[in-house]
């Protein structure tokens, strides 16, 4: 099999249950274009196959056996189906249920699931009467996502392209002819899709950077800076604040790149990866190589060094604590997953993340404004944030539990178990609320922020309790979002206090 060849083996599947449909015409036009481009094409009408829809353990009918052979043979699969009730017809669902079997399409084991149909790309063509924007942005494209991610993507297909056409019912003859011609042209140009991802180089690097993890550390850093300015009665010095923010961003970037390299084994085993867990997948999916990620890490280091020097030169007081905090962040970030310490592999990862995302970045912002690191105010701000970060980072280990255990990564949930870790997260939530009340500045908005934090914390504790006593495997993105947003209440008070005292921002 050679997915990068200029010609290839293409299997076109017409999945419309009825003869004479527009889907059937589209499938035929794609096949015509591919044949004209010199490809070898096989064409299957699912409605002509005779098989039992029930996914029982039984011998495959001759038509399904032939379909499995077509799937082994092809380098590019094209599936054309109508959108019915938001998804796809029962015919296509039953077809997938019957032929995508363990040992053929995927394998299971203690380390998770592995797709067995990699090295193949796919094209999904879907017709519908629903307006496309409603299907994508209001309904969430449920059928398309299921076929792309939970079915073909799960079995190893990559890349998987999609084309949505509609509304069909109200379309004119001219529009339909234009669609048919467009699909014919797609068949002519199908070789461009072999082994090629729709991701540009920028998209791959954006995914590798995992930008969803940067806003809160930067917010906590700004919190420290505003609190220092408020305590001294001076305006915020913008240049050192921006330089400190740039250093924080680059240290986080170095940490993310190092984790991507060191955690490749556990990420490969992880079948529950989400936006907050399981890595960026750029190495696992082959979108970037280790050498490229290492080059990105070197580039980030090259940018960080002069930024540290500039920051040290522009702060008002001694730069030693400031530089020390940055170097400590680099050290902890690197050894979070890298040898010899591998903090995340020895149950120290959660505390490390809580420290770097609270005490360290708040202190960095505080010191960037000339504040003394021994000031009680800085610790009063950072300690509640430290406690508030813990529930989310503890929870982040739950979707990764099986993969981490198989890879020898001893996160807290691997070492303690699910229920004790949930109890620890609830304890941290209660501690964060108590510290928030004890260290409040007493400003006009403090009672409101405290009340919001308490209500949010009680809701989080209740959901954690329920999850601990009714656990389930898989993604917990909703619970993670609840835990992550809980952190925000602890970084807002210095912003409100600085605004109230200054009657607006003073930069």
Would you mind describing this structure in some detail?
- With 507 residues, the chain is of the alpha/beta class.
- The protein is 57% helix and 8% strand.
- The chain is built from 20 helices and 7 strands.
- The protein has helices at 22-36, 62-73, 90-99, 132-138, 142-153, 173-188, 201-209, 215-232, 238-262, 264-269, 290-314, 320-335, 349-368, 376-395, 401-407, 412-416, 418-438, 446-469, 477-486, 493-502; strands spanning 9-14, 40-45, 76-82, 106-109, 112-115, 121-127, 160-165.
- A 5-stranded parallel beta sheet has the order 2-1-3-6-7, sandwiched between helices.
- It is elongated, with a radius of gyration of 27 Å.
- It starts with 8 loop residues before the first strand and ends in a 5-residue tail after the last helix.
- Mean pLDDT is 87; it is low at 1-6 and 503-507.
What's the structural blueprint in terms of helices and strands?
Blueprint: E1 9-14, H1 22-36, E2 40-45, H2 62-73, E3 76-82, H3 90-99, E4 106-109, E5 112-115, E6 121-127, H4 132-138, H5 142-153, E7 160-165, H6 173-188, H7 201-209, H8 215-232, H9 238-262, H10 264-269, H11 290-314, H12 320-335, H13 349-368, H14 376-395, H15 401-407, H16 412-416, H17 418-438, H18 446-469, H19 477-486, H20 493-502
Parallel strand pairs: 1-2, 1-3, 3-6, 6-7
Antiparallel strand pairs: 4-5
Helix pairs in contact: 1-6, 8-9, 8-13, 8-14, 8-20, 9-11, 9-12, 9-13, 12-13, 13-14, 14-17, 14-19, 17-18, 18-19
